[in-house]
Amino acid sequence: MYLKQIVAFDNSSLSQLLLHTLAILSIRAVLRAQIKRRIMSVRLDVMPPLSFPRSVLVETTLRCPADCIFCPNKKISGRPIDMPWELFIKIVDDCRGKGVAGFHPFINGEPLASPCLEDALAYISRTLPEAAIHIYTNGYLLDDSTTEMLLRYNVCEVHFSIDGFSKQVYEQHRRGLIYERVIANVKGFLAHLENHTVKVGTRVVFTMTPDNEGEVPAFRQFWEGLVDTVDILPCDGRGGEGRLPAFKDAQKLGCFQATESTYILSDGSVVACCKDWAGYTVLGDVNINSLQSIWNSTEYRSLRDDISRGILSSCEVCRRCVSDSL
Question: Which of 168, 145, 151, 161 minimizes the C-alpha distance to 64?
Fold first, then answer.
C-alpha cells in the first residue's frame, strides 16, 4: 500500500511538473516572439525607409545567345526585346541626384547583346557619376572591342556567369555557348585589366545544380586568384517558375532583393525583384509615373515592410519563391 501511494504520488508529481515545464516553455516562446517583434519595430524606427532605391536594375535587352537550363529568358513574351531608348533615358533621369549607389543594366538578358549598350553606359556615366555600374555577362560576346568599351566607361565590377569547370558540364548548363571561347574571352578581359589604371572588380558566379555540384571544388580552385570573388550560389528556381526548381538551401539565403533595390522590365513595369521575370506583381509603370513616386507608393512601401518582417504572403512572386523546392 505504501509503495502504491508513492507511485501514485510520483505519477501525479510528474504530471504537474510536466505541465509546469510546458507552461514555462510556452511563456518563453511568447516572450521571445514579443522581443523579436519589439526589436524589429525598433530597428525599423531607427532605420527610416529609403526615399529612393540604392540600386536600380534595368532590363535593357532580352537578347541572349545562350539557352541556359535554369533561365526563363526563352519563356518571356509580350514585352520589347530591347527597352525603348526614350524610356531608358527617362529612367536614368529619374535617378539623377537621388543618391543611387549602383546601376545595373541587366535583368533577364545578356547586356553585351544590347545594340545600345555603349550609348547606355555613356549616358549613365554622364548623368549618374556617383553610381557604380555593374555588368553581368556570360562572356560569350566579350571581345577586345567590348572590353575596351567597358573599361572606357569605368564599369565598377563585371560578373561572369560560368556554371561548370569541364566543357561537358558547362555546355550542358549554358546551352548554345562554347566553353573554350568563354574562358578565352574572360582571360582576355583579365589581361586587359593588368594595364588599366582604374580598379575594376571581377567576380565569377557559379549557379549550382544537381548536375554540376561535383565540379565546385575544381571550379573554385581554378578561379581563385584569377578574379576578386568566386560566388557559388544554389539555383534559386527563379520565383518558382524557372526551368529548374530551387536546389539545396537556396531559400535559406533569404530575401535581399526588394528592400533596397528596384527592378524595371523592358516595357517599363516595376517589379519587386529579379525573380519576377514574368511580371506577376507589377508595382508601377515608369512610362506613366516617376520612379520615385512608384517607390514611395503605398503598395510598394507595404510590400517592403512585409518583406523586412518576413511576411511574404502578400506578394505572388514571394509566395512562389519561398514554396519552391526539389
Answer: 161
